[in-house]
Fold this sequence. Notes:
By secondary structure, the protein is of the alpha/beta class. It has two domains: 2-178, Vaccinia Virus protein VP39 (Rossmann fold); 213-252, no CATH class. 37% of the residues lie in helices and 19% in strands. It has helices at 2-19, 38-45, 57-65, 110-124, 140-152, 194-202, 205-212, 221-233; strands at residues 28-32, 49-54, 71-74, 88-94, 125-135, 156-162, 171-177. The protein is globular. It comes from Chaetops frenatus. Residues 176-250 form the 18S rRNA (guanine(1575)-N(7))-methyltransferase Bud23 C-terminal domain.
Amino acid sequence: SSRVVEIQSQMSERAVELLGLPEDRPCLLLDVGCGSGLSGDYISEEGHYWIGMDISPAMLDVAVEREVEGDLLLADVGHGIPFRPGMFDGCISISAVQWLCNADKKSHSPPKRLYRFFSTLYTALARGARAVLQLYPENSEQLELITAQAMRAGFTGGMVVDYPNSAKAKKFFLCLFVGTSGTLPKGLGTECASEELHQAKFTNERTRFRNVKGKSVKKSRDWILEKKERRRRQGKEVRADTKYTGRKRRPRF
């Protein structure tokens, strides 16, 4: 549903923000459990490149049909990340890693699969890179299991929780550092008193994210021009800008 799509996009945006990527150059990111490529769309929009892994052929078919800009790989991340050392500048994952806690086959051991995933991910990331994994843990044991295997594999970092006081908006992001222990970013909605939190709930999160960072509001003329400029830099064919670019259409009855 469109609501799910919207939440997915918001979480992708937040995950990329937590990666703290350099602004002056395009990066190569890994998207674990990329599904139909929704997070990938946001990564491309920000001017970066990506490779997506997913275990579902059906979801990847949708991504191909949608003509996403990233490369796609059908694989089970519980078997490890099959890329050469130091290849990625960052990794994001939206609502996927908790599945590694389930033993779907008799031979599956969740701690082993998690360790295999994290240790090979650690190797595939450049030094100083981050991995930001948004997940839906079933309980605190799952959170501890996942975090423990990540630390065993060499990562530092920990859990960033957005809107911890809200049953609905609460989100878990496992924020991991390679080689350098950065300071863990603050969760959204953690610093406000309950009254402010109440107001914050009703603002449009989407635009709030953007404008705080001084970026153009989505779908505005500036935003469209910036996107077209990025595409040109990537050597893609883009229509010329005109005075009509980004102009609102009149409603038709």
